[in-house]
């Protein structure tokens, strides 16, 4: 049976609240919404050559979650020869859903709802890409 | 003697947004200033242009996209299995430097020149980085 | 008059394990609450992706690394960027001395995990003071 998984590459930056949102979205998709279908790529481990992340990135299509205009997750995918098949640019999601995270340490009620909304979108993308 | 590879610039060709125009103009101006870069025609690349694809596979390339859809960056990966050295998104530059959003899709207005120059600066930085890695 | 140095705090930001999340919140604790005037954040993904500000920062400021596990990814990344690492705190080592403070999960630390993060943050604050005493 063909192994059709999708890699989730989240920016996880610490400078802004959306880095924390990206991180929580990735956890929600991989741990709750699509366990077994979505796999997490740990950016520091990938960069440090720890674990099998480089292989995952080159084997499975990726969904990128970027928290700001620096687009670190996108750059990192390119650097590691991954294939970006879909992306979610989190600053646009605030406007789309009208929900804003409170702070980078405590997302607050709106931030948690934003995580859920984005995670549902990403889960749908996982379904499309793993067909 | 090591032959220095040229850097390929792949600009988006989007007509839907003014940023597509900025992308093409900035890329064209860089091409006219430097002889260490070439341009790759994105539509030809996507349509299967073998020379474009071969060049992009064998040489470092930088994609320049007008907007977040990132058609150039995604397209070259999906259809040519090419991994760009870096990718530039003009709407990100505009936001980061608080430039006025360009309005015209068919010409560069005087107030758009700042964004064109900022984009050219970014492209130049990425070219220089790519060349440093080549050495 | 010489500009007073600050300590750049680089945090693991890994996503594999709960202790990586502990390191994240420990970083915030020292940056925002304990030593806000004496520290700045060195964002690890930005450093990896080559954001110029972070790259320059890493070269010009003494760095404290907060690691999530024995893989030491953050140290490797900062080393690669030629940053000057002055001290490292490993959350795994701190957990060994506070075994009752196991975090609940990587997504949600829970009260014990947050307490562990605070303890790591306090250790980090002391390290910041030591580093600055040696630098300024």
Summed up:
By secondary structure, chain A is α/β, with parallel strands linked by helices.
Description:
The complex is a heterotrimer of chains A (about 130), B (about 140) and C (about 140). Chain A has one domain. Chain A has 6 helices and 4 strands; from the N terminus they run βαβααβαβαα. Chain A has helices spanning about 15-35, 45-50, 55-60, 70-80, 90-95, 110-130; strands at about 5-10, 40, 60-65, 85-90. Chain A has a 4-stranded parallel beta sheet with strand order 2-1-3-4, sandwiched between helices. Chain A starts with 5 loop residues before the first strand and ends with a helix. With about 140 residues, chain B is an alpha/beta fold. Chain B has one domain (about 5-135). Chain B is built from 6 helices and 4 strands. With about 140 residues, chain C is of the alpha/beta class. Chain C is about 55% helix and about 15% strand. In chain C, helix 4 links the parallel strand 3 (about 60-65) and strand 4. The model of chain C has no long low-confidence stretch (mean pLDDT about 90). Classes of the chains: A alpha/beta (about 130), B alpha/beta (about 140), C alpha/beta (about 140). The interface of A and C includes residues 12 and 47 of A.
Helix-strand topology string of chain B: EHEHHEHEHH
- What string, H for helix and E for strand, traces the elements of chain A in order? EHEHHEHEHH
Strand order of the largest sheet of chain A: 2-1-3-4
Instruction: Name the assembly state.
Output: heterotrimer
Pair of chains with the largest interface and how many residues each contributes: A-C, 32 and 31 residues
Contiguous uncertain segments of 5+ residues of chain B = none
User: Any idea how many domains of chain A?
Assistant: 1
- Radius of gyration of chain A using CA atoms only: 14 Å
Number of helices of chain B: 6
């Amino acid at each position: 049976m063909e192994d059709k998984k999708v890699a989730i590459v989240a920016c996880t930056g610490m400078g802004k609240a959306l880095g924390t949102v990206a991180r929580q979205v990735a956890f929600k998709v991989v741990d709750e919404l699509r366990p077994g279908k979505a796999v997490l790529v740990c950016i520091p481990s990938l960069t440090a050559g720890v674990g099998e992340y480089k292989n995952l990135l080159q084997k499975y299509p990726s969904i990128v979650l970027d928290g700001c205009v620096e687009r670190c997750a996108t750059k990192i995918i390119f650097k590691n020869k991954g294939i970006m098949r879909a992306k979610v640019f989190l600053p646009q999601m605030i406007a789309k859903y009208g929900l804003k995270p409170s702070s980078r340490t405590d997302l607050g009620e709106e931030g948690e709802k934003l995580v859920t909304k984005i995670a549902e979108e990403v889960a749908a993308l996982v379904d499309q890409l793993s067909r | 003697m090591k032959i220095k590879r040229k850097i390929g610039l792949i600009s988006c060709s989007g007509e839907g947004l003014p940023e597509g125009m900025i992308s093409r103009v900035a890329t064209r101006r860089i091409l006219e200033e430097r002889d260490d870069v070439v341009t790759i025609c994105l539509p030809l690349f996507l349509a299967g242009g073998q020379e474009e694809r071969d060049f992009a596979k064998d040489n470092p390339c930088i994609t320049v996209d007008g907007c977040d859809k990132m058609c150039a960056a995604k397209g070259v990966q999906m259809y040519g299995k090419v991994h760009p050295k870096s990718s530039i998104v003009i709407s990100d530059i505009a936001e980061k430097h608080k430039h006025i959003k360009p309005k015209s899709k068919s010409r560069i207005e005087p107030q758009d020149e700042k964004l064109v120059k900022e984009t050219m600066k970014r492209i130049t930085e990425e070219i220089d980085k790519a060349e440093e890695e080549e050495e | 008059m010489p500009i007073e140095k600050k300590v750049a705090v680089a945090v693991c930001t890994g996503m594999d394990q709960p202790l990586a999340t502990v390191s994240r919140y420990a970083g915030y604790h020292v940056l925002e609450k304990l030593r806000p005037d004496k520290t700045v954040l060195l964002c690890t993904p930005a450093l990896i992706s080559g954001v110029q500000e972070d790259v320059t920062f890493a070269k010009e400021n003494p760095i404290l690394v907060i690691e999530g596990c024995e893989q030491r990814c953050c140290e490797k990344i900062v080393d690669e960027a030629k940053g000057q690492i002055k001290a490292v705190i490993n959350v795994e080592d701190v957990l060994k001395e506070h075994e009752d403070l196991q975090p609940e999960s990587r997504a949600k630390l829970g009260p014990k995990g947050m307490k562990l993060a605070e303890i790591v943050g306090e250790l980090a604050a002391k390290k910041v003071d030591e580093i600055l005493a040696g630098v300024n």
